[in-house]
Amino acid sequence: MRNIMNRIFNTFLNFKRLLKYLLQRPSWSSNVRVIEWYKIFIASIWVLYLALEIEQFKRFASPIYKFVSNYDCLKNIILFLYENRVIILLVLTIPTILDIIFKKVSYKKVSYKKLDPKLFPEYDLDDYPFQTHLVEFLNSPDSIHNVFWLDGSWGSGKTFFIKTFFENQIYKKKEIYYISCFGIKTREQAEKILINEIEKQSIFGNLDFIPLVGGVFKWFFKTVGTDLMKRDSIIIFDDFERVSYVAKSDNPSDYNDLLGYIDYLSENKRFKIIVILNSEEIGSAKEIIDNKFKLNHNRMEPTEEVIDNILKKSKLRDDDLGKILSLIFKIYYVDADERVVEDKNKDSKVKKPSLREFQKSLEELSNIIESDYTTNRLLPYFGRKISNYIVDCMNGRMGTDSILVLFFEFFNGIYEVDEYEQFYELDSYFHFEMLEKFVVLSSLGSLPTSEEDMYFDYPQEPIYYFQLLSCLWEVKLRNLFISKTGHKVYYDAHDILCGRTKGCLVEIYYDILNDRIKNNYQVINIDELKDAKCQNFIKKCLPLESKGQITINHIPLDNLIQ
C-alpha cells in the first residue's frame, strides 16, 4: 500500500514539475513554452497543408506513403487526417485566432506591473523611482518620449533589472527585441541583428529546419524586415557605450549612426525603445543625446551606493554602528543577483532583505542607542540590547542566511572546501577565525596592513567582511564567538578577552593596523601560543617589521615563534 502511495505521490510531483516547465518562459523575452511550441506546431501544419497541394511534393511524399501503407493502422490514420485536413487544421488554428482576438480586445486593459517588492525590494525605493518611470513609459499608449534611457555604472545591475522586469510580467503585451551594442557602429549592423531577432521570435522563423522552406522564410524576413514588427513593440539597446569594441569612446561620431537608427525606430516606426548605458563612458556624446532626444533619463545607482545614501539620511550617519549595519546589508546584497537566480533554479524562496528593512533597522538601532545612552557616555556600546541587535542582524534576523553561511559559500566557491570538512572551529573566537581566512584569500599570503591594501588584493565581498570586523572591533564588540552549530555568531559579555590567547593576537593585529602598539600584552597561559593555529597567525598575520617591537608577558614576540 505504501509503495502504491509513493508511486502516486511521485507521479503527482513529476506532473507538477512538467506543468511548471511547460508554463515557464525559455527566456525573459519569450512567451511560455507551451504557447511557443503550439505556435510552431500550427505553423508546421500549415506549411505541410500547403505543401500537399504541390504536385512535386506529392511525388516526393509518395514513397513514404507506400511504405506506411504496409501497416493498416497507420494507413487508416493518415487517410483520415488527409481527408479531414481542412477541418482539423481549422480546429487546431482556433486557439491561435482566439489568442489574437484576445490580445486586440484586452490590449488597453493589460498593463505592465512593478516587480513584487517582497521578492525584489531593492527596486522599490521612493528615492530611486526608475522602475515607476519604466512602468509609466511602457503603459503610455502614445508619448513624445519614445526612448527610455536607463543609466548606471558598470555592475549596477541595469541589464539584470530589465530582464527580471520583463521575465516577471504575467502577460507579454508586446514583442521584445534585444540588441547588444558591443561592437556595433553602423545602422546596417544594428538592423541585421534586429531582423535576426524578429526571425527568431516569429512562428515561421522557427521552421528553418525544413529544407527549402527555411531558406524562403529567411529571404522573406530579410526583405520585409522591421515592417513585420507590431507598433509599440519594445526594442532594447544594451551596452550603448561599448560601440566599436572600445572600452571607452569620447568621439561623438562613433555613436551618430546608432543614434540615428534609434531616432528612426522611435519617431518613424513608433516603437518603444529602451537604451541601457553608462553615460560616464561616452564622454561628449552625452551632449548629443541631451540635445537630439527629449531625454527620458533615469539613473540606476549600484545597491551599495543606495545603502550609503540611506545611511547618510539617517541619525546614525556619523556612527560606527550605522556603518556596521550598512556593511551587513552590503554583504547580503553583493552578488545578490546571482543568488536570486540560484534560488529560483532550486525552487526555493528568494532570501534577500529589503532595503526598506535597512531603513527600519537604522531607526530601531538609533532608538536603542538613545535609550541606552544614559549612564555611561564614554562607553555607550556595551549595552546588552545594542550588542544583541547587531549580532541578530549578523545572524540573519531579516530571514536571510547568517553572514557566516554567506562567507562559507563565497570561500567554498573559490577553494572548493568539502562541505563535510569543518570550515571553522566551533565555539572559537570569531575575529581570529575570520582574520585567519583572509590570509588564505590573499594572494600575498598575509593579512593587509591597511584597508587600502584590500582593494588591490581582494574581491568586493571579503572587503566588506574585513571592514565589518574592523568596525566591530572599534566599537568594542570583541567578545564574539562561533556557536556550536557553526552557523551563528554569539556575544559573551562576561568573557575576559584580554586573557584569551587568540583574542590577544587579534588585538595586536589591530593595534599594529592603527599604529597604537602597547608596551606589553598579557595572556593567562603563554603556552597556548605554541598551538599551530596561533603560530600560523603570528607568522602570516602580523607584519614582520613589527614583531621585534611586541612583547607578550614581557617576552619578545620573535622569541615566541617556533
Helicity level: 40-55%
Quick one: how many beta strands?
9
Quaternary form: single chain
**Biggest sheet architecture:** 5 strands, parallel
Question: Number of helical runs?
Answer: 23
User: What is the mean predicted local confidence, pLDDT?
Assistant: 76
Strand content: 5-15%
Low-confidence stretches: 345-350, 376-381
Structural class: alpha/beta
Alpha carbon gyration radius: 32 Å
**Envelope shape:** elongated
Instruction: Report how far the terminal alpha carbons are from each other.
Output: 67 Å
Count of domains: 4
Q: Major sheet: order of its strands?
A: 2-3-4-1-5
Write up this protein.
The protein is elongated, with a radius of gyration of 32 Å. It has 23 helices and nine strands. The strands form three sheets. It has a five-stranded parallel β-sheet with strand order 2-3-4-1-5, sandwiched between helices. Strands 6-7 form a two-stranded antiparallel ribbon. It has helices spanning 2-22, 33-51, 55-68, 72-83, 85-106, 130-139, 158-167, 187-201, 213-224, 253-267, 285-292, 303-312, 320-333, 336-345, 355-372, 384-394, 403-415, 430-441, 451-457, 460-474, 501-513, 532-541, 544-547; strands spanning 147-151, 176-180, 234-238, 272-277, 297-299, 480-482, 489-491, 551-552, 555-556. It has four domains: 2-106, no CATH class; 121-301, Rossmann fold, CATH 3.40.50; 305-495, no CATH class; 496-562, no CATH class. With 562 residues, it is of the alpha/beta class. The longest helix is centred in the first third of the chain and has 22 residues, at 85-106.
